[in-house]
Write a structure and sequence with these properties.
Mean pLDDT: 92
Largest sheet: 5 strands, parallel
Shape: globular
Helix content: 55-70%
Number of helices: 9
Radius of gyration: 18 Å
Strand content: 5-15%
Order of helices and strands: EHEHHHHEEHHHEH
Number of strands: 5
Low-confidence stretches: none
Distance between the termini: 16 Å
Structural class: alpha/beta
């Protein structure tokens, strides 16, 4: 198995690159989806969140009210750290199980782990390659406002709440510049796939 850690700031083109690699045949695992799965009703994760933050973070149907939880932790670093201490280990365990399942199904699988908080959460899976999508702050803000409908202040808060891009670039093996056209981003993803194929062929030789 060949494991890629794909990360980048909000609205930096991660989904576009992940989708392109998936089209080439990669297995795509999305950390955000896993973070939702580990706090579904009946999970130890949700029970721990309720124990720490109270039943007020639940909707009437027993699911997690992310909006209310977000309000509790937004300006409270200690509360955010406590939430992360519940969610991150559970996501790590689930992701490791999914990697093993992918490898069992196909020992030659290329797995793309799309993980926005790779740096912030100190994700330390044994990656063969770390890929960072990169776009200037102005481009991120424009995309959040025009494509996702956020108002400019919301967009700035979202971007500024994340780790500085320099910290992501410091861990990158490959940087994909997504500030240009969609075609330019796709061509870089295609070149990355070709590089991986050549690297794996050389390993087998």
């Amino acid at each position: 198995m060949y494991l890629i850690g794909l990360t980048g700031g909000i609205a930096s083109g991660k989904s576009t690159v992940a989708r392109r690699l998936y089209e080439h045949g990669a297995v795509h695992i999305d950390a955000d989806q896993l973070a939702r799965r580990v706090v579904e009703p009946g999970t130890p994760g949700l029970a721990a969140i309720v124990e720490r933050f109270g039943a007020g973070v639940l909707r009437p149907d027993g699911t997690l009210d992310r909006g209310k939880l977000g309000e509790l932790i937004f300006n409270d670093d200690e509360a955010r750290a406590q939430l992360n201490a519940i969610v991150h280990p559970a996501v790590r365990e689930l992701s490791a199980r999914l990697f093993a399942k992918a490898e069992e199904a196909d020992p030659d699988a290329v797995v793309v782990y799309d993980v926005p908080l790779l740096v912030e959460a100190s994700v330390d899976h044994p990656f063969d390659l770390i890929v960072v999508t990169s776009a200037p702050r102005r481009t991120q803000l424009k995309r959040l406002v025009e494509d996702r409908g956020l108002d400019p202040l919301q967009a700035e808060a979202r971007v500024d709440a994340q780790v500085a891009n320099t910290e992501r670039l410091a861990v990158a093996d490959v940087v994909i510049d997504t500030d240009g056209t969609l075609g330019h981003t796709m061509s870089q993803a295609d070149a990355l796939w070709q590089r991986i194929a050549e690297e794996r062929a050389a390993r087998r030789a």
